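Hey, I'm writing a tutorial for new members on how sequence and structure tokens pair up, and I'd like a real worked example in the thread rather than a made-up one. If someone can provide the structure for the chain below, I'll link this post from the tutorial.
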Amino acid sequence: MLKLVGVTKTLGGQPVLRGVDLVIPQGKLTTIIGRSGEGKSVLLKHMIGLLQPDSGEVWVGGVEISRLRGQALNEVRKRFAMLFQGAALFDSLTVSENVAFPLREKLRMKGVDVTTRVEEMLEQVGLAGMGHKFPAELSGGMRKRAGLARALVMRPEIILFDEPTTGLDPFMAKSIHDLITSTQRKFGFTAVMVSHEIPEIFGISDYVAMLKQGKIALMASPAEFQQTTDPDIREFISVGGTVALPAAPSRC
């Protein structure tokens, strides 16, 4: 579904991506981890075409998007939705109006068709009957749910999640993770999530990829990932989430 080949990017004179090669499997949940400042969010922005690489290729399906502009790029972006860290809701709109916004602006839907789909999505994320409220009246977790409803309402093929549990307590973070995984399994979209939530991500992801020094150091299933012999990766996932890692295989 998504493929990056040799992607490089320098921002402010500082190399961020140094030759990223990454294949995101279709219909699966892949989580990208790494230390702060490694460029994980920058990587997401390349996937959706918000940033163009200095060199390399970004493929969405069979389309190479790194040099697309205008309407051609917009057509590809219709396949995506994105859930930002702060949900990025419009403060002046109700929850229902926020969720309906892309339907009206992008699909030009009107009337009962919009209402029906919005209510369906709010029910899916546990916000049934909350559509009349404004974002300021919602808790942090409820705003995240509203943001997810807006992402789902366009029925995208791909959803990008940029630190979806930032600022939430552990209980609410688990609730959002459970919601993401249940909706991904139900609707079958391809999900790419940036997260620091270790060890939780090992229980919800189909694949885990680590960005280290501008490249993908490892991508594997959670079970395989935790068997790594790379000392830097082992230190990161053990210190970051107090994961009890199996002993590294002997090199003797």
